[in-house]
Amino acid sequence: MKKHSKSILIISLILIVATIAIYNRTMDIIDPPIPLGFDDSIALQKLLDKGGVIDLGDKTYNIYHQLELRSDTTITSSGAKLVKLFNKDGSEYLFTSKRPTLKNVTISNITVDLKGHRNVLDDNTRFFSYYKNLSNVTIDNVTVENTTGYVVEVRPRTDSPNGKSKGLTVSNCTINTIDEPEGPMIWLLESENFVIENNYISSGKGQVWLAYSKNGLINNNQFLNVDNYWSPDAHLGGVELYTACENITISNNKITSAQDSDDSYIVGLRVKNSNYIVIEGNEIQWDNERSEAINIRKDEVYDINPTGFIVRDNTITGRTPEGIQVVTIVSDATITNVEVSNNTMLDKSIVFHPTTNAENIFYNDVVVDGNDCAQIKFHGLQSENVTITNNNVYAFNEDMTSGTTIYARNLLGPTILNNTIYGNNLIDVITGIDISYSGNAQVSGNEFRDVDVRIKRYKSY
User: 51: buried, middle or exposed (CB in 10 Å: 19+, 13-18, 0-12)?
Assistant: First the structure.
């Protein structure tokens, strides 16, 4: 009998060792392995299936499976922490839902650590991801640690192309990434009436990325140490409205670039192919010498002629030579109704221009007023209703076009009034205002200090 029991014990031990070996090989554990803890996923999922208010207390939870949300659910705590471990179900999400509609959901006052899953080869877990019809979802006072990106991802995809988002709020969150994140922290497509406010995001490849979204607010966030870990050709930056966005305000944010970001062309705040955008009161410290702090752009992909921009009361510092750039990279394009006013960027330029080989470019109904900057450069083709007034323009840049502080080409009836131009004796010949125009140009009340040639005018036809 004893011999039989001993044999059973030996066989049992062999089976246990074999099972562990198979499990480890299946999960592709990378040294050092994570200690296997109790799986709280099933118990939490039972609570989520009921909905209502779920108070997680101050416990630490080990999560091995994605958690499926239902509508009318509030998740809160007094200091709970969710640690995402192995993706046993192969999921990429911590919170998600397969339901066709998700509404009236709040996730607040929790900490999430996504580092655990990174000891597995499948290492890209989102905190919150949903692809269908979302409304009135709030993520507030959540701390996300060790993320690879896509912390909040709300967008349609191939199996749910008609997904829409209305009433998403992401506020008071702290997001700390790994050294080389894989994507933007907040990624929204087809989103309306959204608010992204009072968040702190440190080190990322694109902090906020939006497309086909409207009626939103991005306010009082800190987007710090923005870099690009993807490829030298990727342009993700602090905030990007990629295309077809409308009625969005980007205000009172602090955006800084990584100190060693010059290897990639990344922009602090970029708006492409979009309409009615306000960029106001932001503080941008941008040390990437290849790119601009603020970029408004029309490109070749979408049949949109951008209109309705207000860029005012922003402060731009750092090594970038161009503070604000309005640019088209295609021919036969128009950008209209642009106000650039009261921005402070003493050694940086404001530039309106096409890229190389772009023709028939029109910048119409433009006001550049009350800025402190290094140069105002304007180059289009028969651009109308351009007003340049009340600016303090400082010749800080030694490589400015023709050594000119206000340089404008091919304008129709421009108004250039009451600007103060400082030559500063940095280059051999400083020209205050150099314009070519057709129609009647109103140029008066401008003050010139240390300027060799005050005004050059050319008629163009």
Answer: middle
- Helix/strand/coil for 397: coil
pTM for the whole thing? 0.87
Please say whether the beta carbons of 58 and 82 come within 8 A: no
- CA dist 134 and 154 (Å) reads 8
Q: Which helix (DSSP H) or strand (DSSP E) does residue 5 occupy?
A: helix 2-27
Domains of the chain, by residue range, sit at: 2-459
pLDDT of residue 409: 83
Q: What share of the chain is helix, strand, coil (3-state, %, to 5)?
A: 10, 50, 40
Q: What is the pLDDT of residues 275-296, one digit of tens each?
A: 999 999 999 988 777 778 899 9
The residue written with tokens 């029109």 in the block is 362
**Paired sense of beta strands 246-251 and 275-280, if any:** parallel
- Rounded distance, CA 49 to CA 72, Å? 11
How would you list the strands of the sheet with 392-394, edge to edge?
372-373, 392-394, 420-422, 447-449
Chosen CATH of 2-459 out of 1.10.8, 2.160.20, 2.60.120, 1.20.1070? 2.160.20
407: which residues sit within 8 A by CB, 6+ positions away?
375, 376, 377, 378, 379, 400, 401, 434, 435
Q: Please, are residues 237 and 229 in contact by the beta-carbon 8 Å criterion?
A: no
CA distance 372 to 392: 5
Q: Which of 186, 198, 74 is nearest to 136 (CA)?
A: 74
CA torsion sign for 394, 398, 402, 408 is negative
Give the Cα separation of 73 and 183 in Å (integer): 28
Q: Cα(270)–Cα(243) distance, rounded to whole angstroms? A: 10
Beta-strand pair 246-251/222-226:
unpaired
353-374 per-residue burial string, b: 16 or more CB within 10 A, e: under 16: bbeeebeebbbbbbbbbbbbbb
What is the Cα Rg of the chain in Å? 28
> pLDDT category, 95, cuts 50, 70, 90?
very high
Residue 237 sits at the vertex; the CA angle it makes with 269 and 159, to the nearest 5 degrees, is: 110
DSSP string across 233-302: T----SEEE-SS-EEEEEES-EEEE-TTGGGS---SEEEES-EEEEEES-EEE---TTSEEEEEEE-SSS
